[in-house]
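Q: Hi! First time doing this. I have a protein sequence and I read that you can turn it into a structure. Is that right? Here it is:
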Amino acid sequence: MPVPRPTPVPPPWDAPAPIGDYAVLGDGRTAALVSRHGSVDWLCLPRFDSAASFAALLGDPGHGRWLLTVPDATAVERRYESDSFVLETRYTSPTGTALVREAMPLGDGRADVVRVVTCLTGTVTVEHEWVVRFGYGAVRPWVHHVRDDEGLDTIRAIAGPDSLVLRGDRLPTPQGDRHADRFTLAAGEKVGLTVTWTPSWEPIPPRLPERQRLDQTAGAWQEWVASGRPDRLHRDAVVRSLLVLRLLTDSETGGIVAAATMALPEDPGGERNWDYRYCWLRDAAMTLEALLEQGYADEATRWRDWLLRAVAGDPSDLQIMYRTDGGRDLVERELPHLPGYAGSRPVRIGNAAVAQRQHDVLGEVMLALEAAREGGLEESEDSWSLQRHLVDDLADHWRVPDRGIWEVRGPQQHFVHSKVMSWAAFDCAVRAVEQHGLDGPVDRWRTERAAVHAEVLEHGFDPGRGTFVQHYGATHTDAALLAIPATGFLPADDPRVAGTIRAVREELEVAPGLLRRYRTDRADDGLAGAEHAFLACSFWLADALARAGDTDAAAEVLDALVPLGGHLGLLAEEYDPASGSMLGNVPQALSHLALVRAVHSLRLAREGRPRGRSEAAPVTGDPAAGPDEGRAVAVALPAGDPVPAASAP
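A: Yes, that's right. Below is the predicted 3D structure, encoded as structure tokens:
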């Protein structure tokens, strides 16, 4: 990896850090966001969708944070250790240099954040501040010094069911409503610190050696990366994106969350602030396809099992999203005590889109399960029964309007993307019968498939402009239409696909390669404010161009997009080219999986290999295959409770 350049520390520290400046740590159950100056400003414990214990990201330090920094640093360099989520931050001050290594350890069943600060040269002053506020910054805990079972001094914060414990070589002292410390280290000296979450009724677990846990965590992430076959084109960006997708996958349940955060604004100061810490079936299905294409097959079984548990019951009760444990209660409400990131209000938890009808979701789920089948995953009786019932339910309802992939809060429409994905769901069901010998009412599914196809061509295509449109009766486009060639609805080189790519770029491209989802002045999404470039759509443009055979144009788009992830390689939901700022929740699974799939499409196109609907690696590999193709990928997961590993042949 290239050595990052020193970057000045942006003052003042109590102002919100740019969204793109945050690093992420994760343990396969939850994630922490760490600012450039060493403040853990966001951490929900013990799960992604739990209440935050550090919520300064959406307020100020008084809403909870954990700061460990060199206050007089003149430059800061950050990077992840190789292919891992162990973060290194190097501080340069007028008197010396210091290194902070930190991570959320994997594989030991605990919910910890571990940090070690070491003075490398000269002397450095270190500032340490610990402010715990449970309940998204609303609940002040009882904080007291106690001795643990080993007789070591410990600071414990307790409120209701939650407990946070701070331990280490040097602890801060009470200073008003916070704990703080400032100390000096000389070359070679170091201080290790650990924060541990436990239920408040449980005893404090033993302290574990910080450096050893950091090393083990780095090794576990690196081992997971090595178990797949990541594309070598844009290798660092692809691997970091795969790591993000793995980080956002719950190691215990198999659910895949859309992002690690909530309420980060798409429009700073506006109302487009959503909670993305849940498992959208659509995003999770596309994540699964991206992982399968890169050789990570073990996730397919775990996610399918999660899906069966989450959607069990009446097919008509299918939700578009669930909690990581499969829970269905995602009632949207506001948190008035939080001022919001950069004053962006309301701050919402939960998501009212859970009750929406979105026909495209089942298409994505069926495509992902088809990819798993074609990759060698044996179809289970329960899984196929679920698919049959869901497809039959879709056959009864696809003709009614819906809210679409963008979850509009304006009028329901006959969205063309939703119809195309409904076609894909029927097509996958037909192929499952015809090619895999599964049982089902294939004649009905063929009839519905043909009906959707004919209706879309009649009502969703503008022959005068030569493009598909956002919804029936519209004259404008939608970047989601770029998914058409990936589904097989039309060949990638069909003139109607080419016309759509051209029209989308003309209407929605705001900078080279950067697309809006749609024009808010033409589409009624029921919200105030503007849209910025949506990163997933921008990568879909590269994917569509590559599938159509225009490899030069696809490469130009990727060359413009990939560097936006910066030295840490993390992508949010949107990007404002005018200010050079990431916007929306971060890290965003949809952005990262779109990067991975676009790079994969470009590589295959350059090799002259047709991009099929599924490029999943077989679960059982060909021993004669080369090192980058066709080998087994069933591996142990590197986080959460122990999972038996399957050995490759």
